[in-house]
Structure formats: structure tokens, C-alpha cells
């Protein structure tokens, strides 16, 4: 994860002083853009969470992930997809930094990984973004199932917040 975060952090850090970007995180990439929001809030116009994890100042996904991990160890043998030492590190997201960046959550209603009626809605309820967009009939890999709709959605969000 540290290697995975490095290009995002370096490119965001290297932006000219007055330049602001639109960050898009998909799935676990929501954690990565959250870390960038905390570190560089003045360089981000809006963060878009596309069917993604969305931690926040009042929502600690580490605790949720720990509970899920404990349950999973009882049910199946877990296969780590990420470096858990980095993923589960308590990173404090502050309202003054992370919270100062506009956030949009894009719900994919046919997502069977982050089930729309369960996890995505729970994230939105417990860490409300500025706006919620819905892409109908889109699975978790929305960039494959509904690429045009995703592109249109991202362009609209960019025009509104940038």
C-alpha cells in the first residue's frame, strides 16, 4: 500500500500552488484518496468515491474492517489483498483538512462487492458526502459495465466543483 500511495502523494504534492484536481477513488482506492485529502486539502477541488470505501473524521473504517476481519477468520480462510499493516493503520482524518474537501459518492446499484443497500448506503449515512450520484445497472467494475455513464457522471461532477 505504501508503494501504491506514493505516486498519488508525489503527483498531488508537485501540483502548482493554485492548481486543484478532481480525485477519483474506486473500491479500496477510497482510502488512498482520503489520505491525499488529509495531506493536501487545498489542492483537491472534489473527491469522488466510486463504489468505494469512504472513511472520515467520524467514521473509522479501521474498526469496521477489524470486526469484519475477525468474523471472516471464523467463516473462511482470509486471503490478504492489501498490506494490512498499512490499511489498518489508524490515520486520523480531520474535519479541518479531509473535511474541508468536497466529496461526492457514486453508488453503483448492481454492485455485489460493496452491496448498494448495505455497505454503500451505510457509508453515506455515517459519513454524509456533499452529493450522491447513482449509476443504474452498474456493477462494482462500473468502468466496464457502464463506462459512458461513469464518464458523464465524472465530467458533470468536475464541472460543478472545479
TrEMBL record:
Transmembrane annotation, as ranges: none
Database matches in InterPro entries: AB_hydrolase_1, AB_hydrolase_fold, MES/HNL
Residue intervals of the AB hydrolase-1 domain: 17-150
Gene Ontology MF, one: methyl indole-3-acetate esterase activity
Signal sequence coordinates: none
A single GO BP: salicylic acid metabolic process
Protein name: AB hydrolase-1 domain-containing protein
Species per Swiss-Prot/TrEMBL record: Solanum commersonii (Commerson's wild potato)
Amino acid at each position: 500500500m505504501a508503494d501504491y500511495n506514493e505516486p498519488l502523494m508525489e503527483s498531488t504534492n508537485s501540483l502548482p500552488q493554485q492548481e486543484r484536481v478532481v480525485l477519483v477513488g474506486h473500491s479500496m482506492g477510497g482510502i488512498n484518496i482520503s489520505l491525499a485529502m488529509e495531506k493536501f486539502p487545498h489542492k483537491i477541488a472534489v473527491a469522488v468515491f466510486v463504489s468505494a470505501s469512504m472513511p472520515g473524521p467520524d467514521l473509522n473504517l479501521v474498526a469496521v474492517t477489524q470486526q469484519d476481519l475477525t468474523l471472516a477468520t471464523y467463516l473462511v480462510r482470509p486471503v490478504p489483498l492489501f498490506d494490512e499493516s498499512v490499511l489498518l493503520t489508524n490515520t486520523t482524518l480531520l474535519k479541518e483538512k479531509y473535511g474541508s474537501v468536497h466529496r461526492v459518492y457514486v453508488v453503483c446499484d448492481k454492485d455485489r462487492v460493496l452491496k448498494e443497500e448495505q455497505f454503500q448506503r451505510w457509508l453515506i449515512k455515517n459519513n454524509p458526502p456533499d452529493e450522491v450520484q447513482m449509476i443504474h445497472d452498474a456493477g462494482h467494475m462500473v468502468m466496464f459495465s457502464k463506462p459512458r455513464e461513469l464518464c458523464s457522471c465524472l465530467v458533470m461532477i468536475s464541472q460543478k466543483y472545479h
